[in-house]
Write a structure and sequence with these properties.
single chain, alpha/beta, Alpha-Beta Plaits, 4 domains, potassium transport, transport
C-alpha cells in the first residue's frame, strides 16, 4: 500500500516507523525539517518537507496513487483541509486527527465523509475510553468489548490467589468452559497458547468470555477481594484527563491534581463542583495523604512525562492504592513500567495506530485494537459470503501461525469458539494476531 502521513510529530512518526516495518510504501511529510531529521535511516520510508495543504506538495508525494492519507499534525483545521484536498486529488481513504469532541460524534460522520474525510481520530478521547474501561473493573489490566459487551476480552495479571495456575489449559479452558485463554505475556515473551500450556504466577493472561461469565472469570483468577473503584485521583489536568472525567460513570468521584495554576482555573471552569481541582504536585506524599490517598481506589497519572507518571504510580501503590494507570508515551519506558508492575499503561500513539491500522484492511473490519503489552492486534472481522473461513470448521482452517480465534457474535449473542465451530457469513469474529501479517488473516474473511 502507498501511505502518505502528514505530521512528523509523536503519532505521525510512530505510525511511519510501525508501517514501514510492514513493508508499506510510506511518505512522511512535515513543514519542519528538524522534525523529519529525527527519523532514523534504519526505517524504509521517504521524508518530504511540505505543508499538508500544499497542492504541489501532495502531488509530489504521489497523492493520486495513495491508498491512505493520514493527517496528524497538531493543527486540526489543517488536518481536515488536507484530507479534503487529498481526497479530491485521488487518495482512496483519508484520516484526520482532531481535538474537538463534537467531531467524533457518530451523527457527524456522514458530514465529514462528504468533505472527503473517511475517518476522524481524537487520540485523547480514545485513550480516555481505555482508562475508564480499566477503572470500571479494578481487577483487570485491559478490557475490550465486542458488540457492547456481547463478547469481552480481559487482560488480567495473575497473582497467588489464582485458582488455575500450573494446570494445562486443556483441563481448565476446554470447549465447554465459559472462557478461553487467547494469549499470555510472560516476562518479555508473548505466547499464543495450546492445550498443554499452563498459566503461571505473574503472567498477564488474556481471557475471552461472554458478559454473563465475567464474575466466574473473576473468581477463578482470584480477584474477588478487589474493591470496586469509587474514588479516583488524577495527576495531570490535560486533555486526556478532561475527557476521562467527563466519561466517568456517576458512581465515581474524581480529584485532579495539576501543577499549573492557570490550567487549574481552566479546569474549574470546565467541571462542576463535584470534581475537585487541586493545585499541587501529585508526587508530594504529604499532599496525597492530605487529599485522602488512603481512601482512593485508583490513581491515574497523565502528565506529559513518562518517568513522572511511573514514579507517581509507584508512590500511590506503596500508599495502598490497588489500581494505578500511567500514561507512558515514550515506548522505551513501556517495558520498564510493566516490569515495575505499574498497572494499566496508556499510550496515545498505540491507541491511534490501532484505529488507523483498521483503515488499511480491505475486509469488513469492525474494530482493531493494538495490545501494546503483548505487541499484538485483536481484530473484529465480519466474513463475506463464500469467504474461506466459512468453508470449514475452525479445526480444519489451518490458521496462520500466531493467529487464534477467540469468539464470535451471531445475531447479537456472544459465543466462544472451539475447533468444531463453523463460522458463518455475517458473524463478528474476534481474531487475536501476534507477529503475523494482518493481510494474510484478512484474506480468510474476504
Amino acid at each position: 500500500m502507498k501511505i502518505i502521513i502528514s505530521g512528523a510529530y509523536a503519532i505521525g512518526t510512530y505510525l511511519a516507523k510501525l508501517l514501514s516495518r510492514d513493508k508499506q510504501d510510506i511518505v512522511l511529510m512535515d513543514e519542519n525539517p528538524e522534525n523529519l531529521a529525527k527519523i532514523s535511516n534504519d526505517y524504509d520510508l521517504l521524508t518530504m518537507e511540505s505543508s499538508p495543504t500544499s497542492i504541489k506538495g501532495l502531488k509530489t508525494a504521489g497523492i493520486e496513487d495513495a491508498d491512505l492519507f493520514i493527517a496528524v499534525t497538531p493543527n486540526e483545521s489543517a488536518n481536515l483541509s488536507a484530507c479534503a484536498m487529498a481526497h479530491q486529488l485521488g487518495a482512496k481513504k483519508t484520516v484526520a486527527r482532531v481535538d474537538n469532541p463534537e467531531y467524533v460524534d457518530p451523527s457527524n460522520q456522514e458530514l465529514f465523509k462528504k468533505m472527503g474525510v473517511s475517518s476522524i481520530i481524537y487520540p485523547e478521547m480514545l485513550a480516555a475510553k481505555d482508562i475508564i474501561n480499566g477503572l470500571k473493573m479494578s481487577w483487570v489490566r485491559q478490557r475490550w468489548d465486542v458488540h457492547d459487551g456481547a463478547l469481552v476480552m480481559l487482560g488480567i495479571k495473575l497473582r497467588e490467589t489464582c485458582e488455575v495456575l500450573n494446570r494445562p489449559l486443556k483441563e481448565i479452558s476446554g470447549p465447554d468452559d465459559p472462557y478461553h485463554v487467547v494469549a499470555i505475556k510472560r516476562n518479555d515473551e508473548t505466547i499464543i497458547p495450546g492445550g498443554n500450556d499452563t498459566l503461571q504466577l505473574y503472567d498477564l493472561a488474556f481471557f475471552m468470555t461472554t458478559k454473563q461469565y465475567i464474575p466466574y472469570v473473576r473468581k477463578v483468577v482470584g480477584k474477588e477481594h478487589y474493591v470496586d473503584v469509587q474514588n479516583v485521583m488524577i495527576m495531570g489536568g490535560g486533555k486526556t484527563a478532561t475527557r476521562a472525567v467527563k466519561m466517568m460513570p456517576e458512581y465515581m468521584n474524581a480529584k485532579i491534581i495539576e501543577q499549573n495554576p492557570a490550567r487549574c482555573e481552566v479546569l474549574n471552569d470546565i467541571f462542576d463542583e463535584d470534581t475537585l481541582v487541586i493545585n499541587g504536585d501529585g508526587r508530594d506524599i504529604g499532599l496525597l495523604q492530605e487529599e485522602g490517598i488512603r481512601n482512593t481506589q485508583a490513581f491515574v497519572s497523565l502528565t506529559s512525562n513518562a518517568e513522572t507518571n511511573i514514579l507517581a504510580c509507584l508512590t500511590a501503590k506503596r500508599m495502598g492504592v490497588r489500581k494505578t494507570v500511567a500514561a507512558v508515551e515514550n515506548l522505551d519506558y513501556v517495558s520498564t513500567a510493566e516490569s515495575l508492575d505499574i498497572g494499566t499503561i496508556i499510550n496515545k500513539k498505540a491507541v491511534a495506530a490501532s484505529h488507523i491500522y483498521q483503515m488499511m484492511l480491505d475486509a469488513n473490519v469492525e474494530n482493531v485494537k493494538f495490545l501494546m503489552s503483548v505487541n499484538a492486534d485483536v481484530a473484529e472481522f465480519v466474513p463475506s459470503p463464500d469467504s474461506k473461513i466459512t468453508k470449514k470448521t475452525v479445526r480444519e482452517l489451518n490458521l496462520p501461525k500466531g493467529v487464534t480465534i477467540g469468539g464470535l457474535v451471531r445475531n447479537g449473542e456472544g459465543m466462544l469458539v472451539s475447533g468444531n465451530t463453523q463460522i458463518e457469513a455475517g458473524d463478528s469474529v474476534v481474531a487475536f494476531c501476534y507477529n503475523v501479517d494482518m493481510k494474510k488473516v484478512e484474506k480468510l474473511f474476504m
